[in-house]
Amino acid sequence: MLFTKGHGTGNDFVILGDPDGALALTPALVAALCDRHRGIGADGVLRVVRSAKDPDGAGHAGDAEWFMDYWNADGSFAEMCGNGVRVFARYLVANGLADPGGEDLPVATRAGVVRARVGDPIISVQMRAPEVYAASTATVGQLTFPGVAVDCGNPHLVCGVHDGLPLGSLDLHAAPGYDTALFPGGVNVEFTTVGDPVEGADMHMRMRVYERGSAETLSCGSGALAVGAVALRDAGLRAGVVAVDLPGGRLTVTYDGASWWLAGPAVLVATGEVDPAALTR
């Protein structure tokens, strides 16, 4: 099996080219590929398949040639991945499957079609508009953090860390507790603090994230989008730019009053071949 390894601000992926939908992925195979000791190691798998060749993408075949079939590291599906879609777009262009000088590149996902503007090193993606819709809480050990639910095509819970508690002090080795009635399919939980002003941004947020199906990751693009949406709402801004710093680097969320954009680097670092049978020995 041929693969490419890529990442967006440290959120890393195994990319499998499968244009005609011939590859039989299973949860066990995905988990084995993502295993950092016995596999290649990644936060998830991106299968690159033509929309018309995948049951989940076929409904978007008229709008986007390519479907991002995204799997979490534990072998579960995910609707959207903001870092993943930028890495996916980089892969398409690097392998001659999309025109780097053309119009915005459409990519089908389980959350709908998004559009990427491919630059070097930055890729910007016009994302589905985030919906801030409910108050909730998350728990880490004995600590409880108030938060707000945000739908970015996938579920998020954005929680502010207050009272001088350092963001780095949170123990995210285990999944935070959350309201399973509000999030029956699980949720990505973001913990945030306000950062110092940065040039070119209206607001600056720092963030850590625990992703459902993958544990704590260095970055989460849709999580940054959720954080940006909450920050602008709380500041009473109807448009603006939010710089979001994560352990893996900086992402930029921009709302121009009509569209939401997520921007950041996307890098392909290796190609290779793996024996699927060896992964399960």
From TrEMBL:
The gene is dapF. It catalyses: (2S,6S)-2,6-diaminopimelate = meso-2,6-diaminopimelate. InterPro entries: DAP_epimerase_AS, DAP_epimerase_DapF. One of its GO terms (cellular component) is cytosol. Signal peptide: none annotated. It comes from Actinoplanes digitatis. Pathway: Amino-acid biosynthesis; L-lysine biosynthesis via DAP pathway; DL-2,6-diaminopimelate from LL-2,6-diaminopimelate: step 1/1. Substrate binds at residues 11, 72, 82-83, 154, 188, 211-212, 221-222. It comes from the Bacteria. It is found in: Cytoplasm. It is an enzyme of class 5 (isomerase). Catalyzes the stereoinversion of LL-2,6-diaminopimelate (L,L-DAP) to meso-diaminopimelate (meso-DAP), a precursor of L-lysine and an essential component of the bacterial peptidoglycan. Keywords: Amino-acid biosynthesis, Cytoplasm, Isomerase, Lysine biosynthesis. Its main location: cytoplasm. The keyword Transmembrane helix does not apply. HAMAP family: DAP_epimerase. Belongs to the diaminopimelate epimerase family. One of its GO terms (biological process) is lysine biosynthetic process via diaminopimelate. The record marks 156, 211 as: Could be important to modulate the pK values of the two catalytic cysteine residues. The active site is at 81, 81 (proton donor), 220 (proton acceptor). One of its GO terms (molecular function) is diaminopimelate epimerase activity. Its EC number is 5.1.1.7. This is Diaminopimelate epimerase. Homodimer. The keyword Amino-acid biosynthesis applies.
